[in-house]
Please model this.
Amino acid sequence: MSFQIGKLISLILQERFGIIIEKVGNFLFEYGSNPLLYIMRGTELPLGKVKEALCILIKYGLVTFKPNNNENIANYSLCIDNILLMTRYPKFLNLLKKKFGDESEMIIEELLQNSYLSTSDIIVKVAERLKCDVNDLPNVRDKFVSLVVAKYIQRLPTPNEEERPVPILEIKESVLFSLPKIDMKLLSQVYLKKIPKEELGETVFWIVNFDRFHQDMRDKYLVDAFTKKFDENVGEFVKLLLQQMYIRTDPWAETSNPVPLLEIKDIVRKKVIYPNLVTFFDQYVTVIEQDPSQIIRKSGEASGGSFQIQLKEAYNQIAWEIVEQVILEKFDSKAVRIFRLVKLKKFVEPDQIQQLAMIPSKEAKKLSYQLLEENFLKLQELKRPLANNGPIKSFTLFYIDLESIVRNLLELCYKTLYNAMTRKSHEKFINKRIIDKKQRVDAIAMGIQSQGATEEQLADIEDMITPPEREILGKIDRKMKKLNIEELEVDATIFLLQMYLKYQ
Amino acid sequence: MGGRGRGRGRGGENRSFNREQLNALGVTGNEPIPNQVIEPPPLYRMLERRPVPLESSKEMEYLLLLKQDFIHHMQLSPSYLKMPVTKSNEFEQEIDKLVAQIPTKREKYNWNLFPSELRPKIFAKRTKHKLQKAVDVSEKLNKLEKLEEKSFKSDVKTEPTTNEDDEIIEQEEEQDEEMDFGTDYANNYFDNGEEFDDEDDNLDDGPIY
Model:
């Protein structure tokens, strides 16, 4: 793990959990797995605070522990991936909102905020947020059940039988998604606050299954890509193909098993939303088949033909595309032409580049050396003696190592994220006084509004912020928004690059 | 010319000065010697190209909202740990003081899922020690009073000193005991709780989870 990630996760932790936890996280990142007392010594924090910090980190799944050689104490280590995931939470929520609606989104939101919850907690909390009637509780329960069945939520590993000072948490795969009985009668009593929830005596807790969300995101980006390239109808076709894929293929397989065309046709017919896809179904299929990207390939003619989708290949192509885009923005289109040429030829001599890319010699050299400098191209030297003691002729060849480029780009993304977040906290810091004032004024306005103040009074309080101040506030707002959007966008790139590495 | 000749004669090399050496001597090149080295490179380089503006869509707005919500929720939740207030970081603004007064509730954990060493259990020990000390002092005062009433002058002079000695020794013991679990830096943090000791007596029974 790189230095850059360390700086990034420390900022992510600080934004969400405060300075103390950031310190503990930093220590664990730097020194790896460590027992409690070492953490305390290294961070120079009071023991109580370190304990509290570790509890919180463990609760949110950001730190795991294993028993030390001395079984009474544990070694704690940081889960870097889970910390980075925190920047992706909004995307998970949005995904679920689109797919299953608001109630499901709320369930996941509660889970993300609290990390783990019992069945009754989830249902009661969501019902309270919706302010729904007792009779509507089964509705929420059904939403919850469907999320478990669809594997968006899984059980929290529980300590195994024996009592130990350091529990070993594990769960059998067979019960990972199995539902306990939900007693609705007792639950509605809890909801009406007639009995305390402790009386339910629940032992099953639930956490969010990020892997399932990543599958969905993977599918979504593919569908988006096809929609952009062709039209919505093709997007819908790919969506259905992926949906049918889950029935017969392991979700992370590189290539899906063949899906019969008839199956998709049947589903399309039942859906009324895409009339064009029904009428021109065969034409669409031909277009997709002939697409040079070859992501969706025909695998057989039987029963009207069946199709396979090449997921690994798809993300391979996406990764290439991202790299080319980065080069385009960094060095402009001529550099991309050189890069594509090297990609096409696999190994190219510098002289050939000038001729084949049709770029003047000096410029071609400059650009290819720039690409080399930033590690987009690599250099291979071949030496071959002409005669026994004659001069040695050497060739230099450019080539591309995509995986190393992708890893470099990931680093770059982490750096970008870090820079954006640093900038954000800097803006907050230099404008602290004015932001605080705004917050105070808002608080006062809220206060008197709830006491039933007139509009005039409210306007008076609003006037406490002078026009120039208001202007500055607007500026800060715009800046923050821009930086926040940037964070989300960079995270999308990170996801695509990670997918490429996952399939590698 | 002369320099070149001498060099050749001494070293027996057949090559003359290379480019850099000549440059350094100021013999060749019309280019001025770069003199920017004196100042450090700029902290932020000039942007070669302007980045493409970010598109903001409705979806992005919603994502932003979700992001802000989550961060706000975390910052207000008990999971957001703050440093204990010390003299070095006292609040500058009134509002910060008010914010700090909001009672921070502690998280409730399901302790089966955590290593037992993380459970807080300092409370109980602390209170016990304080109580013992209080009793000792009152007893001693009684003793002193009795002594004052009964004994002769000479005794009065000697007795209190021994008592004082006793007290010093006991205080030392007290400190020693604290040092034993003095690795628990948290003691400092919980100092504030001393005033509430009387009410917290029932804590002696055991740790509270």
In short: The two ends of chain A are 18 Å apart (CA to CA). Chain A has a mean pLDDT of 87.
